[in-house]
Amino acid sequence: MKRILKSSVSSASAGVSFKAAAMVAAAILPEEMIVQIVTRLPVKSVGRCRCVCKRWRTLFSDPQFAKLHFQCAPKHQTLLLSRNFKLEILNLSYRLSFGKESLVLQNLNAPFDHTWAVFIGSCNGLVASYLSRSFLQQESLFIWNPSTRFFKKLPSRGNTSQISIFGFGYVSATDEYKAVINAEIFSSKTESWKRIEIPRFRIASSCGVLFGEALHWLFYPDVERQQVPNLYAFDLEEEEFSVMKLPSAFQTLGLKNCFICQVGVSCEGCLYVMVNNPRWHCGKLAYYEIDFWVMREYGNSDSWTRSFGVRIPGQPERRDWYLHLQAILVREASAFVRNRCPREEEKLDMSIIHYRNEEENSDMYMLDNDAQDMVVYEESLLS
Predict the structure, then answer these.
(1) pTM, 2 dp
(2) Whose CA is closest to 232, among 259, 261, 201?
(3) What is the per-residue pLDDT across 124-147, written as a single tens digit (0 to 9) for each?
(4) Where are the alpha helices (DSSP H) in 29-176?
(5) Which pLDDT score is estimated for 1?
(6) Measured between alpha carbons, how far is 233 from 229 in angstroms, rounded to an integer?
(7) Were both Cys, which of 56, 200, 293, 341 would link to 222 (CB 3.0–4.6 Å)?
(8) Which pLDDT score, from 0 to 100, does residue 7 have?
(9) Best CA proximity match to 380, nearest among 73, 60, 61
(10) Torsion angle, CA of 332/338/344/346, rounded to 10 degrees?
(11) H helices of 39-149, where?
(12) 46 touches 38 (CB < 8 A)
């Protein structure tokens, strides 16, 4: 009890000292300088600043301040997981060690019923979520900010057809957010949905990856029946599709039977594709080769280069084990991924498994869990 009281007193004292220091700063520093300082603080710290006085609440709640803060503040990425009908978050610092001590999950309460939530995508700290109750013929779509609890319900598409592709992004020229579901697109400017032309394809990936102001999917052209998919880019401003070729090595190096797992954006700001190439020996699965290929120059198919690779054993000791990877963070020589593997009954928590390629000095950290869905977002004050 004494320890609890001491902690409470310490917290209260810290709050009082922070407010006192803020009041002194407000009396001494020009308001413009205070704004420049606060724009470089984390989201939670800005929330504390809003409690100092009425003027600061007004100042730091302004939409223009939110935009300035997003531009100036250090980027803090967070992994949002939908697991066992609950929402959990994991802070992804750039220096995350991926060790057991860093795997601290926190519960997150959404301002809407998230029981059947599917994450369409994230952009500027906002997360687009799709809630479908097909058995009730109901559909709901939300844009929300997990950092501030802001949320907005979008108008229904008018149908509950099964989702095949989806994505979410922002167009700076018109200052509007757009969400894509199947052959329909929503604009926050018009507050309505409209039909768009999409190519005929067989799905390789459902979730559109945002890079710049375009969404990217892996599609197999339906008319060609080729084994290696194409990378399709959808320009959100022009609302048009274009084709980007994947590495020619997928054909020439005998990788035509590999599984192109995912397209994404690396921490260095390049598009990448993650490739799963199962290796067999005497009719049995020996191991998986997971390779990452990076497009060094966006739009130039000749700039694809293999960044690194890691070998993963076939895990024969678990009958229910299989490899279904989704990349969370990818760097120049390391990756943090998750495997959508059924969890063993005796394992109640998530676990991280480390794999290393000594020859290439590369690492992969695999988060083994059974989460239904996940998305990575950047903390912001935008709404």
Answers:
(1) 0.86
(2) 201
(3) 999 999 886 654 456 788 999 999
(4) 31-38, 43-50, 54-59, 63-72
(5) 30
(6) 13
(7) 200
(8) 35
(9) 73
(10) 70
(11) 43-50, 54-59, 63-72
(12) yes
How many other β-carbons are positioned within 10 Å of the β-carbon of residue 197?
Answer: 8
Q: 95-111, pLDDT tens digit by residue? A: 555 555 556 788 998 88
Two tokens at 285? Answer: 């699965």
Kindly state the tokens that stand for 168.
Answer: 């979410």
Helix, coil or strand: residue 260: strand
Nearest CA-CA partner of 106 in 292, 367, 373, 350: 350
126: tokens are: 């906002």
- The Cα–Cα gap between 213 and 238 comes to 10
Q: What is the pLDDT of residues 277-306, one digit of tens each?
A: 888 888 788 888 999 999 999 999 999 999
Instruction: Please give the angle made by the CA atoms of 375, 378 and 383, to the nearest 5 degrees.
Output: 100
Name the nearest CA neighbour of 206 among 373, 370, 336, 378.
Answer: 373
User: By three-state DSSP, how is residue 63 classified?
Assistant: helix
What pLDDT score does 12 carry?
44
Q: Which two tokens stand for residue 144?
A: 């929300």
Sign of CA dihedral 316, 320, 323, 328: negative
- Per the CB < 8 A criterion, the answer to whether 122 and 375 are in contact is yes
Helices 31-38 and 43-50: crossing angle in degrees, nearest 10, is 140
- H or E segment and range at residue 41: none
Give the whole-angstrom CA distance, residue 78 versus residue 99.
17
DSSP letter at 319?
A: T
DSSP 201-232: EEES--BPEEETTEEEEEEEETTT--SSPEEE
In contact, 61 and 53? CB cutoff 8 Å: no
Angle at CA 292, nearest 5°, toward 290 and 294? 170
